[in-house]
Amino acid sequence: MVQSTMVQTTMVQSTMVQSTMVQSTASQPPQSPPSTPRFGVNYTPSSGWFHHWLDFDLDAVRADLDSIAALGMDHVRVFPLWPVFQPNRTLIRPAAVEQLVAVADAAGERGLDVNVDGLQGHLSSFDFQPAWIHSWHRRNMFTDPDVVGAEAEYLRTLASALADRPNFIGMTLGNETNQFSGDPHPDPDRITPAQAAAWLDRLLEACEQGAPGKFHLHCSYDAAWYLDDHPFTPAHAARYGAATAIHSWVFNGTQQRYGTDSAAVAHHAEYMIELSKAWSADPRRPVWLQEVGAPQPHVPADKAADFTRATVANALDCPDLWGITWWCSHDVSKDLADFPELEYSLGLLTNDREPKPAGLELAKIVGEIRGQWAPPAPRSVGLVLDLPEEVTARATCGPGGGFYEAFMHLLEEGARPTAVLAGLAGDKNHLTARGITEVLAVEDVWS
After folding, report:
1. pLDDT for 108-127, tens place per residue?
2. Where do the record's region annotations for Disordered lie (predicted)?
């Protein structure tokens, strides 16, 4: 049996932590999660992958969007390629921007809202950065004033072009741009956490200038949560922008360590959602499960539907979930070379736009949820994460870490835990705001 113990924290510690838990100056006005969670897909064109911008075919895009809408999805996340849209620091191609608007309009005609990632950035193991920050023009994408100014103008331009579209959700700064800032990237742009914060502030403000009041945010891959000394921190993820974006991939060591049929695999997305709440200054901050998928061979094809149902069900049991956006819509064609093998089969649909088992399962879940949604109850058990506010060491949160394994053990025993920083574990106001009535230290889980 798991025994609960109240973890005592001095009022001084609690006050110090609360004083630092401030929102970014570029954060959006407080927003609540939707009454019913959103369901969507990351749009990967069935023909040409993201290279389709080079040979843009709106009819092909419309056919892709038809197949997505047929699954019952309500939104897509769209990825312009940065070098195609801004090939020179002072040139943002009008024709490319018009094509992006055409995609948004085509989505709207099919009842699909659109979120746009700007700085592409990194996609499926390939980096897409313009020539004006490489080799002879090598400059840090996070700190060089000319580069950051150009990035801001690019994001402002895209946001402005879409601002009047009723189906435009908002901008995501770029896809997992944190991977350019540190290891294991082969040629990172080194920065400090303070420089990362300044970059986020500047670019989120640019999105807000272009499309005021929209749902603008940023996203990181899980190094921000799990990798010691990574310059993008959990606090950046949980306090900057309109929502916290979670990218949950079980090939990050979770499946390798615990096995496909483990609780850790089935609950990984849920875990990351609840882990993020430890750093949030707003107890009702929306959390968007912006990327999650069933990668082979970590999730075999014959288990993809079961993985999909378990992952979605567990994520939906998290309060304040904005929505779930599956990676991805269509498979990558085998005609394209050099992708990691798992990338070719992640689609909910084939290249011929036929639904696969995971796609059919997700469509079934969406049909079940809509019209009979009841928000989950608050998670009353808070597992204490004994890390400082300005966290540098965070391996305890990743696969094999002490906090990670304690959280998974609680889930296996039927509990519904969430995470709370040690500095707030004795703050009654904070706990009450989150619905936490019981606080556990990691060591209590095993007693």
Report:
1. 999 999 999 999 889 999 99
2. 19-40
